[in-house]
Amino acid sequence: QVQLVESGGGLVQTGGSLRLSCAASGRTDSSSIMGWFRQAPGKEREFVARIFWSGGLTYYADSVKGRFTISRDNAKNTVFLQMNSLKPEDTAVYYCAQRTIYSNEYKYWGQGTQVTVSS
Fold first, then answer.
1. 32-39/10-13 β-pairing
2. What does the alpha-carbon distance between residue 53 and residue 89 come to, in Å, rounded to a whole number?
3. Distances in Å between the alpha carbon of 81 and those of 1, 27, 49, 50?
């Protein structure tokens, strides 16, 4: 069992920055892959970024590439999403999720944190 708790959301102006955190407890090990997703009102949830717990390999959606950075602190069992040059279209609820290298399904999800970018 894995518990994920996101924090760091808020209201920011266009061009601003926010840093989201996802604190993980329970079973997170070298087989884990941590992902960030987002869901805007009236839209489907979409992938944002992911990172391999072991090795730190990252992958980003084209819409955030060059503006967002995913990272992790293994000692603190925490994953971060640094978001720069924010745009109004980045407004969404952001979710942290976890899967393993053995499955494409993200099994565990956090409760989400709201990010609002004003124009």
1. unpaired
2. 29
3. 23, 21, 8, 10
Chain segment 2-46, per-residue pLDDT in tens:
999 999 999 999 999 999 999 999 877 888 999 999 999 999 999
Q: What is the pLDDT of residue 28?
A: 72
CB-based contact 111:93 (threshold 8 Å): no
Q: What does the alpha-carbon distance between residue 38 and residue 76 come to, in Å, rounded to a whole number?
A: 23
Per-residue pLDDT tens over the stretch 45-88 = 999 999 999 888 999 999 999 999 999 998 899 999 999 999 99
Give the DSSP letter of residue 40.
Answer: -
What is d(CA 22, CA 80) in angstroms, rounded to the nearest whole number? 6
Give the number of other Cβ atoms within 10 Å of residue 69's Cβ. Answer: 16
Distance CA 41, CA 21 (A): 22
